[in-house]
Design goal:
The complex is a heterodimer of chains A (223) and B (319). Chain A is an alpha/beta fold and 223 residues long. Chain A has a single domain, classed as P-loop containing nucleotide triphosphate hydrolases (Rossmann fold, 3-Layer(aba) Sandwich). Chain A has 6 helices and 10 strands; from the N terminus they run E-E-E-H-E-E-H-E-H-H-H-E-H-E-E-E. Chain A is globular and about 50 Å long. Chain B folds into 2 domains: 155 residues; 143 residues. Chain B contains 11 helices and no strands. Chain B is flat and about 70 Å long. Classes of the chains: A alpha/beta (223), B mainly alpha (319). Chains A and B meet through strand 1, strand 4 and helix 2 of A and helix 2 of B.
Chain lengths: 223, 319
């Protein structure tokens, strides 16, 4: 379970310029839920995601994941928390363009130091699942947007995280590929993953398998 | 006042370090007074960020202080050429009434900074950061030690009069001088060397018995017994002169700078030995500290002993 309690987040651009990204946000997400955070650019959706992922800390308030207050973790523990619990799909995929599909997907597993056999098994399984196995040795910069997206999803899934976070995942995809991505989300949900998607893509609105749509407006949740 | 390029470099670097240490001091006071890990307030989150910054500042101060200490010794040696009567750093240290205090304080500060880092490293290994308040509280005191060192250093260099004649190490470390060192030098070498090797054997014994507090205490004593035996006994074999007891001359080129290796072995070995009892840690880390301590202490003992053995093999007599 994910809980955000009285979260405030202020970005200090400089001494005289502060941006209040989140204001007294309270949110509870149950295990296995699929949540869509919707709202305009700059409304605070990505900030919520980065707090849940332990990528940043609130200015005040608590972020609790499975009874652990992750907003208080030191950087080294945050990294371990992310490694073990979070799969992150970025808007621009954030792949390493000069590495192959297989190498990109393998990256989250590197700190776990798996044997070659274990690694190969895991990679093949995930690449097969996301229909990218036939391109496994290709350099990712030579792939299409949709294929890169699938590599990014495979990478987020490879360490079998409990929580999958997607930040504007379809911003760079056409409608057809976006619908394919939605299908993948449905599949991930059926596997019991907790999924949080931040988007302003109307394709995500009103989907039957989405548990809740939450509007974020000016740093507050519109409930 | 003596102001060679080396002295100037030391003073500038130390002033810079003092500036950063002052920032760390202000932040340490703030953290010490307000730290509450249970709180999710804006202040606590700010303190958590600042604690990271402060620890980083202190870490870099230490990283600079270690080579700076070696450079300080090198500088003492170098400026001994300017002072009338001085043959090595010992003459410079003895040239003013502040030198000895400064030298001892510098060594103490190195140990306490290293201790602080060991405590910090242990603290950040735990999610609940059990030593945060303690380590920043300690830094408030350590900062004062450090400032005394910086001030004393400035005072010492400004008090040196290049026209005034100073004692050479032969006079300072002789049995005829009226110092504590002279009283020590008058002791029988059998007693001094006996205590030194007994101390080392006890360290080995408690290494195997894994009694960390006793091991730690024995390492503390080992610094003292090592320095005394080095001045009173082993040094004479390094110089191959029965009357020369200087702890500085072997830092010079004539002796292949062996003094630096000797002191590094001794200080690293005893430091890791001492923190076994001072900073609580995991069994694995404790084992690592025991091992590092024993390895460096053993290297130290082997190195100083080798001078005696080689001298005897070559000459067939003891000094």
């Amino acid at each position: 379970m994910i809980e955000l309690k009285d979260i405030n987040k202020i970005y200090e651009i400089n001494k005289n310029h502060k941006v209040e990204a989140l204001k007294k946000v309270n949110l509870t997400i149950k295990e296995g839920e699929l949540i869509v955070l919707k709202g305009a650019s700059g409304s605070g959706k990505s900030t919520i995601l980065s707090l849940i992922a332990g990528l940043s800390k609130p200015t005040s308030g608590e972020v609790i994941v499975d009874s652990k207050q992750i907003s208080k973790l030191l950087d080294n523990f945050s990294s371990v928390y992310r490694r073990d619990n979070i799969g992150f799909i970025f808007q621009k995929y954030n792949l390493i363009p000069t590495l192959s599909v297989k190498e990109n997907i393998a990256l989250p597993l590197v700190p776990l130091n798996p044997t070659t056999k274990e690694l190969e098994q895991k990679l093949d399984k995930v690449m097969d699942m996301f229909h990218i196995l036939h391109k496994k040795d290709m350099i990712v910069k030579n792939l299409s947007g949709g294929e890169q997206q699938r590599v990014a999803i495979a990478r987020s899934y490879v360490n079998n995280p409990k929580i999958i976070i997607a930040d504007e995942p379809t911003a760079n995809l056409d409608k057809k590929l976006s619908l394919k991505f939605i299908e993948i989300l449905k599949e991930l949900k059926s596997l019991g993953k907790t999924i949080i998607v931040a988007t302003h893509d109307p394709l995500f609105y009103g989907l039957e398998f989405v548990d809740r749509e939450i509007e974020v407006h000016n740093g507050s949740l519109v409930l | 006042m003596i102001l060679t390029p080396e002295v100037l470099a030391i003073l500038i670097i130390n002033t810079t370090l003092a500036f950063f240490a002052f920032i760390a001091f202000i932040l340490s006071v703030k953290i010490y007074l307000n730290w509450d890990l249970e709180s999710s307030s804006t202040l606590q989150y700010k303190l958590e960020k600042q604690s990271y910054l402060t620890a980083t500042i202190i870490k870099y101060i230490f990283i600079v202080k270690v080579p700076l200490f070696l450079f300080f010794i090198f500088t003492l040696d170098k400026i001994s050429n300017i002072l009338i009567g001085a043959m090595c750093g010992a003459g410079v240290v003895d040239a003013t009434e502040y030198g000895t205090y400064l030298f001892v304080l510098k060594i103490i500060n190195l140990y306490i900074f290293a201790y602080w880092l060991a405590l910090n490293s242990e603290d950040i290994k735990h999610e609940n950061q059990p030593y945060t308040k303690q380590k920043f509280g300690m830094f408030i005191i350590f900062f004062l030690f450090f400032m005394v060192e910086v001030i004393l250093e400035g005072v010492m260099f400004s008090a040196i009069d290049v026209k005034e004649m100073v004692d050479c190490c032969g006079t300072i470390y002789s049995t005829s001088s009226s110092t504590y060192i002279a009283d020590i030098l008058k002791l029988s070498p059998y007693i001094i060397v006996g205590i030194f090797y007994t101390n080392f054997l006890l360290i080995i014994l408690f290494y195997f018995l894994k009694r960390k507090y006793i091991f730690s205490f024995l390492n503390l004593i080992f610094i003292i017994t090592s320095l005394i035996s080095l001045i009173a006994f082993f040094g004479t074999y390094i110089y191959q002169l029965p009357t020369h007891h200087c702890p500085f001359c072997f830092l010079q080129k004539d002796y292949d700078y062996v003094g630096y290796i000797i002191y590094i072995f001794l200080f690293v070995g005893t430091f890791f030995g001492m923190i076994t009892g001072f900073v609580e840690t995991s069994l694995e880390e404790l084992k690592k500290r025991y091992n590092i301590s024993l390895v460096f202490n053993t290297f130290y003992v082997l190195l100083v002993t080798s001078y005696v053995v080689v001298f005897f093999i070559k000459n067939g007599v003891w000094l």
